[in-house]
Amino acid sequence: MKTARRCCLALLYLTLVACGTSSPTPTALPSPVIVQTTALPTIESPPVPTTVAPATLVPTSIIPPAPTPEGRLGPDNLPPNVNPLTGEVVADPSVLDHRPLAIKIVNTPPCARPQFGLNQAALVFEHYVEAWGTRFTAIFYGNEAENVGAVRSARLIDLELPAIFDAVLVTSGSSGGVKKRLLASDFASRMISAEFEAPCPPLCRVPVDSVPCADPEHTMFTTTQDLHAYAAQLGLEQRPQLSGWAFSAAPPSRAIGKPAGQINLGYLNAPVTWTYSPEIGQYLRSQSGNRQVDALTQLRLHSANVVVLFAHQLYSDIRESTNFYSLEIQFWGQSPALVFRDGQAFEGMWLRPQRAGLFQVVDAAGAPIPLKPGRTWFEFVALDSGVVENNGEWTISATVLPQQTPP
């Protein structure tokens, strides 16, 4: 029987309902989609290694046998060889001496897929843009990507994310109103953008006829190595002070979790499905009904954690185009959250009481909900988005606002 939940801003804690210990049977997946890469762009300077042939998604090709810490780590005093954004042990702690990179990456229109480098990101934030498509801000930290893109323009949510992660914001540009706010921000010196005369490398254009959309807006690509080198020239390279998240290889008690074999996010023009694979312990991503892959490796997009962040959203007075205004996602204060890991769902709250530093995701007792070591994909939805759970299948409506009418 279906049960519906309405998430409410005024609630500090959510009632947790006990459930059984059995794990749901994952939904059968369609046959793999082979993505042709002959027309996909590559970075001309420096050369990009040859894209590997399509591969079958298996545990050894996704998750190297790295020594993941057992038990719970954090939220404070993580060992210096543990990535504070993924909870994973790094072989060389010096890779954490770089500044995090918050790179804006295209997701709509569909012809812009597959993107390059998303499986190398530590975190990915997905959010609505105008016309009810979605865009990503991918946080790269502790792992390098030899091709990332297509790089696109910033939105108002990018006034918040670089402050949280002490990151360099990397974009192709921004609208006039967003640009004005970025230049007035506390990280104005930590931006690498074509509109601020960033050279190639790190931000390079490829021929328009080499990208699937054949659109100049989708021709900018980069590499994390080039971005770190350019950031060093600007005096921006330093290890950030990041702490506050907890990680555990084992999930929280099943007594407080609910089965979650599938997550459906109803973004109007870019619906998403995450399907849990018990064989590899990851959620696998589909976009608009199709398996979504990383063009850099030809592997399915996957994430150890999927966290749905409910936040107040409203349209600003900033025009993104003649017909559309920029959406403001008010990611400060506190609101409900859903944490999905290990085929289970855990209800809680996200808390961001101050501008700088990592936000928290806590349970009804106010304790951090530990993430599974690995990548986390954050999905922003409106506060009044509906939530329906049916036999381990979760559907979040991702409510949209009516677009403003230009004066």
Q: Could you characterize the architecture of this molecule?
A:
This protein is mainly beta and 407 residues long. The chain has one domain (3-13, 69-396): YerB-like fold (3-Layer(bba) Sandwich), CATH 3.50.90.10. The protein is built from four helices and 27 strands. The chain has helices at 59-62, 161-165, 176-183, 224-233; strands spanning 3-6, 72-73, 101-105, 123-128, 134-140, 148-149, 168-171, 191-193, 204-205, 220-222, 247-248, 258-259, 262-265, 272-277, 282-287, 290-291, 293-294, 299-300, 302-303, 305-319, 325-330, 333-341, 344-352, 360-362, 376-382, 386-390, 393-396. Strands 3, 4, 5, 7, 8, 12, 20, 21, 22, 23, 24 and 25 form a twelve-stranded mixed sheet that branches. Strands 1, 13, 14, 15, 16, 19, 26 and 27 form an eight-stranded mixed sheet that branches. A three-stranded antiparallel sheet has the order 6-10-9. The chain is globular. Mean pLDDT is 84; it is low at 1-70.
CATH architecture: 3-Layer(bba) Sandwich
Q: How many E strands?
A: 27
Beta content: 25-35%
CATH class wording: Alpha Beta
Give a summary of the structure in a few sentences.
The protein has 407 residues and is mostly beta strands.
What characteristics describe this protein?
eight-stranded mixed beta sheet, 407 residues, YerB-like fold, twelve-stranded mixed beta sheet, disordered N terminus, 27 strands, mainly beta
